[in-house]
Amino acid sequence: MILLGIETSCDETAAAVVENGRQILSNVVNSQIDIHARYGGVVPEVASRQHILSIIPVIDEALRQSKADWDDINAIATTCGPGLAGSLLVGANTAKAISYGRNLPLIGVNHLEGHIYANWLGEEEPEFPLLCLVVSGGHTDLILMKNHGDYTLLGKTRDDAAGEAFDKAARILGLGYPGGPAIDKAASSAKADLKLPRAWLKGTADFSFSGLKTALLRLNDAGEINNINNAAASFQEAVVDVLVRKTVNTAAKHGVAQILLSGGVAANSLLRQRIRDFSPVPVLIPPPVLCTDNAAMVAACGFFRIQSGNSSNIELDVEPSLAM
């Protein structure tokens, strides 16, 4: 079965063609980073307008690269939330129009669930039960996955998500936007020499990064940061330390077979290294290009949803605050 996936939840306009939920035939992403960088973050109205301009050319390019034509497409999968309302509407309405015009099944996909399914696009197929750490700009969640579509939320952030914390730290340190790659690059040859707090929230699998961000801000305002790169390394160390320890401890508690890492922050080099070093079970991590927002993960998720008998219809609506 060949699916066309569409992803427009934030500031990437993406389309992909994926076969049987595992094989990528094409994966096209048109990023708006250069447009939003001047503002230090994503401007929702600007993002939705750019999606309108880009969506059809991106879909056409995905079909061209896949060497598939419309007669080869068996279903359409599109992100329906969470995300920016205007951005989501562009992708979802485009998917509904294609579904209606070509009489193709339509599958609405949860964006976070899509990130998890990026792990099915590699050579190794994940083995249930799984512990999924989803780390992105808006979410930091620990999810127990016992089978396709069977999720239990074990922990989440109580304030800032890890990616949001990286963006704010990068702004404090003057490293630019997006913050995650900027922090990672600055920390690559630096020493983590600042003493920064960790919020362990003992007895829970929840996360909190707001206090860490505030501690960095106060040190900066007091003129106590002498080396920007070392400060970036210290902040990254604090975030990764909590993410890894919480995930490893939760994996041991629930006796999972594997850990899946996903979401934009899963591209962080220190996090990828540390979680593999300390995990008691095998860890699967998508390549960096599949950690950030893309449509291949949406198509992969859509395939497994339709295999389970789940599909949507032309009445599909977007849900900006959709939860797992």
Question: What's the structural blueprint in terms of helices and strands?
Answer:
Elements: E1 2-7, E2 12-19, E3 23-31, H1 33-37, H2 44-66, E4 75-81, H3 85-102, E5 106-110, H4 111-117, E6 130-135, E7 140-147, E8 150-156, H5 162-173, H6 179-187, H7 210-221, H8 228-254, E9 258-262, H9 269-278, E10 283-284, H10 288-291, H11 296-307
Parallel strand pairs: 1-4, 4-5, 6-9, 9-10
Antiparallel strand pairs: 1-2, 2-3, 6-7, 7-8
Helix pairs in contact: 2-3, 4-11, 5-6, 5-7, 5-8, 6-8, 8-9
List keywords for this structure.
324 residues; 19% strand; single chain; 5-stranded mixed sheet; Nucleotidyltransferase, domain 5; 10 strands; alpha/beta; 2 domains
